[in-house]
Amino acid sequence: MTGIYPAATQLERHRQQFPALANKAYFNFGGQGTLPQASLEAIQQAYTYIQHNGPFSVGVNAWIMEEGNKTRQAIASEFGAPVETITLTEDVTVGCNIPMWGIDWQAGDHILLTDCEHPGVVATAQEIARRFKVEVSTCPIMETLNEGNPTEVIAQHLQPRTRLVILSHLLWNTGQVLPVTEIVEVCRNYSASTQLIRVLVDAAQSAGSLPLNLTELGADFYAFTGHKWLCGPEGIGGLYVRPDALESISPTFSGWRGIVIDEVGKPVGWKPDARRFEVATSAYPLYAGLREAIATHQQWGTPQERYEQICKRSEYLWQRLSELDNVRTLATSPPKAGLVSFVLTNGHSHKQLVNSLEQQGFMLRTILDPDCVRACVHYFTQPAEIDQLIEAIRLEARD
C-alpha cells in the first residue's frame, strides 16, 4: 500500500469509491460485495456504447471480442494464471457445473465432497449420481475447524474409483481455509486409484480475499465469481482450467463463442483453450464493471497486502466477539480469512438477531449448517464499524 496520505486517511478516501458503504455497516461480502462507483459508471458507459454503435454491428462485435480478451487478462493477472486458462462464466455455480458435467462418467465412478460444500454443488453431484450411477460421498471436514488435519481426512476417504474431489478453498460456513495444494498432492499420489483424481475448487469465498497463484496452487479446476469479494457486478464469473486438465472434460453446453468456425461458417472443432467452455451472448458491459472493480482493489494494494489487512480486521472482530457474554465464535483461534462465524449461547434466534441488526444498519447473514451467524470483513472495513457492530450484538444478546 503506497501513497502520500496516512494509512487511516488513505483507507477512508478509498472507501469513498464504494457508494454502498455510505449508509450502512456492511459485513456480508461473502454474499455479495459492494460495487465501486467506477464499476457502475463503466457498465453504463458500455451499454451506451453498444446502443450508440449497434447494438449489433461489425464494430460492436469487434469491441465485444476485445472486452472478453481484456477481462480474461485482468482475471489472469490477479490470480497468477495464464490467460488461456480462463473461461468467462456467469457465476461460480456455472463454473463448477462445467467440469462436473464435462467428465465422461462411468457407472461405479466416485465423487468425494466435503461436508461444507454449497447446496448448489451438492445438488449437482446428486443428479450426476442419479443419471450415471456414480457414487457420491462426503468427508467430515467441518470437525477439523479447530483440530485435526483436513488433508488426512480427505486422504482417508479417497477410493480406487474416485475421479473427482470437490472442495471449497475458503469454507463459506465456518471460515476455515483448506490447504488446497497439499490436498491436490494427496490426490495425485493416491496409489490405489485406477485413474487420475481431478480436483475442483469452489472459490466463491476465496477469489478476491485470499492471495492466489493458480498455477502454483495445483487445482485442476478453480471456479470463481466476481460479485463477492472482488466487488464486481453480479452475472460475471469464471473458471480456471489447468492446462493438463483441459482435455479431461468436454463442453456440455456449446455455442459460437467456444467453437472454431471455417470460412463457410461451419463448426470444425473447439477453441484450443479454456474459451471452449464459453457459450453465447452475455451481458458484456459487466466485463468492464469487473475490470474496474479489480483495478479499484489494486489501487489500494497487492493481493497479499489486502489479504493481510483482511486478516487483521477479522482477528479484531473475532477477538471482540470472544469478549461478549452469550456469544461463542466457531473458531477457537483467529481466522485466516475474512469470514467470522459465531453463535448465540443463550438460545436467542440467529434469524431474529440478523433481522434486528439489519434494521440498525448492520448487514450480516445466517447460516443453516452449522446454525450460526456469519460476519465478513474486507480490507476496507473500519475498526470503528466493528466496534459499533459489537455493541449492537452485545445489546441484542442480553438475557
TrEMBL record:
TM ranges: none
Any one GO MF annotation of this record: transaminase activity
SUPFAM superfamilies, alphabetized: PLP-dependent transferases
Pfam families per UniProt: Aminotran_5
Highest taxon, organism lineage: Bacteria
InterPro entries linked: Aminotrans_V_dom, PyrdxlP-dep_Trfase, PyrdxlP-dep_Trfase_major, PyrdxlP-dep_Trfase_small
Residue span(s) of domain Aminotransferase class V: 33-373
Keywords annotated in UniProt: Aminotransferase, Transferase
UniProt protein name: Aminotransferase class V-fold PLP-dependent enzyme
Species of origin: Symplocastrum torsivum CPER-KK1
Taxonomic lineage from the root: Bacteria, Bacillati, Cyanobacteriota, Cyanophyceae, Oscillatoriophycideae
